Amino acid sequence: MRIERNDYLSKLISKKNNGLIKVVTGVRRCGKTYLLFNLFHDYLLANSVAESHIIKVALDDRSNKELRNPDNMLEYVKGRIKDNQVYYIIIDEVQMLDEFEDVLNSFLHIPNVDVYVTGSNSKFLSSDVITEFRGRGDEIRVHPLSFREYTSAYEGSVDEAWDDFLSYGGLPLILSMKTQEEKADYLQTLFQKVYLSDIIDRHKVRNKDELDELVSVLSSAIGSLTSPLKLSRTFKSVKNKTISDKTLSTYIGYLIDAFLISKSMRFDIKGKKYIGSPAKYYFVDVGLRNAKLNFRQMEENHIMENILYNELCIRGYRVDVGGVDYYASNSDGTRTKRQLEVDFVATKGSRKYYVQSAFSINDPNKERQEVRPLLSIGDSFKKIIVVRENIRERRNEDGIMTIGIYNFLLDADSLDR
User: Among the residues of 241-352, which ranges form H helices?
Assistant: First the structure.
């Protein structure tokens, strides 16, 4: 099954021959290898690059074991270079290469090579990229399939696609599986045997049960404001376990670095500053979140909010939780200051959007609840409410746009409608 991932392919093409190491990161099984070894490889061939000028090495392949030695790798690559034309070096699972930092830096001294690598989450995370390749590396973050990518390869109606996506998420291999049991087993095994094992091995986590329990708590609380201190109190009162907020903060950092979860900070919209703790945490793939909970707690409104957050991140926005002050009138004539929440403040350069995720606003009270924070902002940036109903965009007299989740996710330009 071929799944086109044109947004990521376009990023690779735009960075081609820029003199930097292109580092493709993302949660395991999200399609990094397929992007480079299939889609990008085919692009190079279609644009007159000879096969002999594409040097591909999959270091997780046993037959390439000798190339995990740094000197052998350098000798192999240099031996393949026969002329002054550009050679494209593509290395998968580069963390399996001993002293890979030195090897990649050595490649930069070869004038006619362009280097692309992927790395496993256990040893090659975004923080490593920043540390090891500052000024010399160009990170390209790959996410699991967006709903638009998912439906492009899904055999069935959009409603059926939504039901499956809501339950099993967007890891590409899910699309090749036929039964619910097969999908559920795959995700649950992946979570325990790959993702958590990676984190435990990398960071030498001694209390595995604490980490596992934290992931379960975060899975149950997607879209809710929380903090390590609040989580520590929850463990004490509900789980009867004493885990310090410092330990929980460290574990959360591990999960973020492994791309399993993302943190959305609170932002004071009128004060134009970050508020700090608490924050919201979302899973990079809702299927993994659901698998951790054994496919219980399948509240569509919360999962839809997580999917919407991921979509904004996939589109390249920094996504924060917005806070705006609102003064409510009391019966005695006084006014009470309240903090209203805007689900997402999506920012990219000078562009900004305020987005509310609302399962339904058919009830007038619910509509007022969603609209009030947006009306309290007082600036001219676009304000959007995304609802579960399958409706096209419409605007009220205040210019607030309401749009159905399908139309929002399937239209790459939906923010600017």
Answer: 245-257, 286-292, 300-314
Residue 332, both tokens = 């005695």
- Of 109, 141, 173, which residue constitutes the final position of a domain? 141
- Dist CA 148 CA 410 (whole Å): 5
Query: Does 271 lie in the same domain as 299?
Result: yes
Measured between alpha carbons, how far is 117 from 93 in angstroms, rounded to an integer? 7
Q: pLDDT value at position 347?
A: 97
**Tens of pLDDT along 6-65?**
999 999 999 999 999 999 999 989 999 999 999 999 999 999 999 999 999 999 999 999
415 and 330 share one domain: yes
Q: 272 and 398 in one domain?
A: yes
Domain that includes residue 110, residue range: 6-141
Concatenated DSSP letters for 61-82?
SGGGGGGGSHHHHHHHHHHH--
Please tell me the least confidently modeled range out of 174-178, 223-227, 359-363.
Answer: 359-363
Q: Could you tell me if 279 and 337 lie in one domain? A: yes
Three-state DSSP state, 328: strand
Question: At 26, which CATH number?
Answer: 3.40.50.300
Inter-residue long-range contacts of 338-342, CB under 8 Å, 24+ positions, other chains counted: 340/372, 340/373, 340/376, 341/373, 342/269, 342/373, 342/374, 342/377
- In sequence order, what DSSP letters do the residues of 121-186 get, joined into one string? TTT--HHHHHHHSTTTEEEEE--SPPHHHHHHT-SS-HHHHHHHHHHH---GGGGG--SHHHHHHH
Domain boundary among 98, 122, 141: 141
- Among 269-278, 317-326, 331-340, the range of highest mean pLDDT: 317-326
Residue 220 counted as domain residue: yes
Q: Quick one: 128 and 158 in the same domain?
A: no
Residue 371 counted as domain residue = yes
Dihedral, 371, 372, 378, 383 alpha carbons, nearest 10: -20
Q: Which residues contact 225 (CB under 8 A, 6 or more apart)?
A: 266, 278, 279, 280, 321
Residue type (1 letter), 353: Y
